[in-house]
C-alpha cells in the first residue's frame, strides 16, 4: 500500500502539516473519533458485533426472526469492519511517514500498537511548544518584512502561511499584517501598493481576506512578468 501522505515527520518543523493531514485522512475515512486526541474513544474499545444464536426450534417464526437478526448482524459487522479498516489505514500512513528514530522512541511503551496512544506519544515529542511557535513565527515574520532579492513567488507563499503561524502562536495582535505587507511590497511596485492600500482602506479589513490580497499581488506581478525574473529590482515594467 502506498502512503497517502506527502510529508515525512522527522522534526518539530514537520508536525503541524503532518498532523493536519493525518486528521484530514481520518475524517475522510470516517474514523476521526479514534484518531483525534481530543476524543476519548479508542478503536480497541469498539465492541465487535456478535452473531445471533441459531434457534433451537426450527419453526417458521423462529427461522424468520433469526434471518432478520442475522441481516442486522451483517450490517453491524460491515460498519465495524469499515471502522477497523479505516484505523488500520491511518496506522499504515503513520508507520510509513514517521522517521524511524522518532517512531522507535514513540513505540517504547506502546505494544501492541494503539494508534491514538502512538499519536499522543509523537505529539509529546514533536509538537512545538507555544514558546517555540512564537519564536519561529516572529523570526519568519521579521524576515518577510524585507523584500526578497529573488524568489518573489515563494516569498508571497510565505506571506500566506505566516497569517496561520502567528494566529496559532497567539501573537496576531503583535503585528499589523496588512500594513507590513504593503510596506514590504513598496520597493517592488510602489504604484500598485498605493492603489491596493487605498482600496483596502475604503473597503475595510472586515470585507477583505489577507490570502486574497496576496493572490491579487501575485496576479499583478505575474502580469508584469516579475515572477519570472531571477532578481527583483525596483525598475518595474508597467
Question: Which short descriptors sum up this protein?
Answer:
single chain, about 240 residues, mainly alpha, elongated
**Secondary structure: helix percent:** 55-70%
Radius of gyration, whole Å: 27 Å
Beginning-to-end CA distance, first to last residue: 52 Å
Which class of secondary structure composition applies to the elements? mainly alpha
Work out the helix count.
Answer: 9
Residue-averaged pLDDT: 89
Q: Find the count of extended strands (DSSP E, 2+ residues).
A: 0
The share of residues in extended strands comes to under 5%
What's the quick description here?
With 238 residues, the protein is mainly α.
What does the model show?
The chain has helices at residues 12-28, 60-97, 100-106, 115-126, 130-144, 152-168, 177-185, 190-203, 210-223. The chain has 238 residues and is an all-alpha fold. The chain is elongated.
Amino acid at each position: 500500500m502506498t502512503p497517502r501522505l506527502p510529508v515525512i515527520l522527522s522534526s518539530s518543523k514537520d508536525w503541524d502539516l503532518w498532523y493536519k493531514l493525518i486528521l484530514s485522512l481520518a475524517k475522510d475515512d470516517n474514523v476521526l473519533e479514534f484518531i483525534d486526541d481530543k476524543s476519548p474513544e479508542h478503536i480497541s474499545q469498539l465492541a465487535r458485533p456478535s452473531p445471533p444464536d441459531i434457534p433451537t426450534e426450527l419453526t417458521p417464526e423462529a427461522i424468520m426472526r433469526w434471518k432478520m437478526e442475522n441481516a442486522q448482524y451483517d450490517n453491524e459487522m460491515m460498519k465495524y469492519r469499515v471502522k477497523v479498516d479505516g484505523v488500520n489505514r491511518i496506522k499504515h500512513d503513520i508507520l510509513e511517514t514517521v522517521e524511524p528514530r522518532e517512531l522507535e522512541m514513540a513505540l517504547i511503551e506502546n505494544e501492541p500498537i494503539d494508534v491514538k496512544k502512538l499519536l499522543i506519544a509523537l505529539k509529546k515529542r514533536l509538537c512545538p511548544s507555544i514558546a517555540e511557535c512564537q519564536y519561529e513565527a516572529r523570526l519568519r515574520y521579521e524576515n518577510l518584512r524585507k523584500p526578497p532579492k529573488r524568489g518573489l513567488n515563494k516569498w508571497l507563499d510565505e506571506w500566506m502561511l505566516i497569517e496561520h503561524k502567528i494566529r496559532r502562536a497567539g501573537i496576531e495582535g503583535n503585528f499589523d499584517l496588512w500594513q507590513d505587507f504593503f510596506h514590504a511590497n513598496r520597493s517592488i511596485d510602489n504604484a500598485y501598493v498605493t492603489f491596493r492600500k487605498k482600496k483596502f482602506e475604503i473597503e475595510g479589513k472586515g470585507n477583505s481576506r489577507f490570502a486574497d490580497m496576496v493572490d491579487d499581488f501575485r496576479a499583478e506581478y505575474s502580469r508584469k512578468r516579475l515572477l519570472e525574473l531571477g532578481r527583483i529590482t525596483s525598475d518595474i515594467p508597467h
